[in-house]
Write a structure and sequence with these properties.
The chain has one helix spanning about 15-25; strands spanning about 1-5, 35-40, 45-55, 65, 70-80, 80-85, 95-100, 105-110, 115, 120-125, 130-135, 145-150. With about 150 residues, the chain is mostly beta strands.
């Protein structure tokens, strides 16, 4: 996991070719002009989903998710969002078995750490790193965000 300011995301170029494509897209601001739903950068290797979330959640309502095929870069476009994170996947309780076709599994556990992101920030979750997105900051609110999916 990497958390930082968007102005510094270019520092992470060079880790992988697909990650570089996503970072270049972010630096160009392509996600700001994206349509709701899936937007292609490089086929199924790099794309981003623009999402409008009606309401952020309490921790008790939320689940951890993991991915095996895709790395996530998440950026809040409008609003603020908390992310629950774990430093390991030990003790995760399966809430929904991993779906390899959708690259998605859901798990229950209390977060060890919470990060708050605003539109100036980004967070990268590598494969198999549990993360709990869409958590409320103070009170439940709607947000707009983008999730880049980068094939590892």
């Amino acid at each position: 996991m990497i958390v930082g300011k968007l102005k510094n995301i270019g520092l992470y170029k060079g880790l992988s070719e697909n990650l570089d494509k996503a970072i270049d897209s972010i630096l160009k601001g392509e996600y700001k002009k994206g349509n709701i739903g899936k937007n292609i950068v490089d086929g199924e290797k790099v794309f981003f989903n623009v999402q409008e979330i009606d309401s952020t959640k309490d921790i008790e309502e939320a689940y951890f998710e993991t991915h095996k095929r895709y790395i996530d870069i998440q950026i809040v476009i409008d609003g603020v969002e908390n992310y629950g994170v774990l430093l390991s996947d030990e003790g995760l309780e399966v809430a929904e078995p991993f779906n390899y076709e959708n690259d998605f599994g859901l798990f229950k556990k209390s977060p060890e750490t919470i990060f708050t992101l605003s539109p100036e920030d980004f967070i990268i979750f590598f494969t198999d790193e549990p993360h709990m997105p869409c958590l409320k900051v103070n009170e439940k609110k709607s947000i707009k965000k983008v999730v880049y999916k980068i094939e590892k």
